[in-house]
Write a sequence for this structure.
């Protein structure tokens, strides 16, 4: 047995109406000038105006420049907005993209250099030398779990390659997880983000890294998603199902401090090359990759089948996943979602460069990725 480190530092306020407590919380911290970081679509919807109505007494500015897979230029524009407003804190309000930008806007606003100079694998990585602005997060989707994560995934503008800024210093000081904020999600978004949450829980559990605390969280997160994903898609106003998916999303993101696997390496490549939604990319790859992984850890597939109440044990788990995808409206192959054979070499190259597969249950070669992408076509 080797030395190991475990940390679960994020304070979470969970439940319907949690969003209404943000204003009093910030005032209690002596803060007055928040910058709300959100995306272009949410900024135009009533949900943001309703949230702002609970920030009375604060001088609020909004940066809504997040769109699609977040880029370094979006972060730097948000940092400029923070400085222009003379903000003293950041509120992240949105899905994974908006929250990933919100997590590092304060960093970019208070430190020198481009945000990607702080990515973990930069050859001359900059140090986060000073305290970052106070940051709270409100998720409006249930999938990435970015609100509780210590990483921010930001794409290079020119290449679209996804880069990771990783530090406990960018964690939210407090998360306000309100399932009422997710009831307006359309079914296809609920399905894709829900599969992202389920994938996080499954891949975290399958990772060979030693983290029994995260194993327990991941198994429970998978159980909750298996119980409620279909209902959340088919009954959008079902607050119990929405709450379950929001909880499963956070549990998956907490668990993946244990690391992920080849499904995510493939999904990151599909996002970079084909601009596929991350949750959809995971959903399109998960059954193919898990079918390949199963022989390496059959006992873990038995446990997953048990907690997800899959009749037939571990051997039935991948077929169950395929049926789940059908039930929530995720159909087709990579090809039917626009991926072409000409893109395969670049997909393989980016997936192999991605760090996630280093904790896959089976070691991955470029040839393995080539076969996996081809099988999912």
């Amino acid at each position: 047995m080797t030395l190991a480190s475990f940390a679960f530092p994020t304070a979470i306020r969970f439940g319907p109406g949690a969003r209404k407590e943000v204003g009093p919380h910030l005032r209690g911290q002596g803060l007055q000038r928040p910058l709300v970081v959100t995306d272009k679509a949410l900024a135009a919807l009533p949900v943001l105006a309703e949230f702002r109505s609970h920030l009375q007494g604060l001088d609020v500015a909004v940066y809504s420049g997040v769109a699609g897979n977040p880029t370094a230029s979006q972060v730097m524009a948000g940092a400029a907005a923070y400085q222009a407003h003379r903000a003293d804190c950041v509120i992240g309000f949105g899905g994974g993209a908006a929250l990933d930008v919100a997590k590092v806007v304060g960093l970019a606003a208070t430190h020198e250099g481009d945000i990607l100079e702080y990515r973990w694998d930069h050859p001359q990585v900059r140090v986060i030398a000073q305290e970052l602005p106070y940051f709270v997060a409100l998720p409006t989707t249930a999938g990435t779990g970015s609100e509780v994560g210590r990483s921010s995934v930001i794409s290079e503008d020119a290449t679209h390659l996804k880069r990771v800024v990783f530090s406990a210093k960018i964690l939210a000081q407090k998360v306000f997880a309100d399932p009422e904020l997710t009831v307006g999600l359309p079914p296809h978004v609920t399905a894709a983000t829900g599969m992202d949450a389920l994938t996080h829980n499954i891949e975290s559990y399958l990772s060979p890294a030693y983290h029994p605390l995260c194993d327990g969280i991941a198994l429970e997160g998978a159980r909750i998603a298996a119980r409620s994903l279909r209902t959340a898609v088919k009954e959008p106003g079902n607050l119990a199902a929405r709450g379950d998916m929001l909880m499963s999303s956070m549990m998956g993101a907490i668990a993946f401090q244990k690391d992920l696997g080849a499904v995510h390496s493939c999904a990151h490549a599909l996002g970079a090359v084909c601009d596929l939604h991350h949750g959809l990319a995971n959903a399109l790859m998960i059954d193919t990759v898990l079918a390949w992984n199963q022989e390496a850890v059959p006992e873990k597939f038995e446990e997953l089948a048990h907690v997800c109440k899959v009749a037939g044990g571990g051997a039935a788990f991948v077929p169950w996943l395929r049926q789940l995808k059908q039930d929530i409206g995720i159909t087709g192959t990579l090809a039917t979602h626009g991926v072409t054979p000409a893109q395969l070499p670049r997909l393989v190259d980016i997936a192999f460069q991605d760090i996630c597969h280093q904790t896959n249950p089976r070691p991955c070669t470029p040839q393995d990725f080539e076969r996996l992408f081809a099988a999912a076509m």
In short: The radius of gyration is 20 Å. The mean pLDDT is 95. The chain has 14 helices and eight strands.
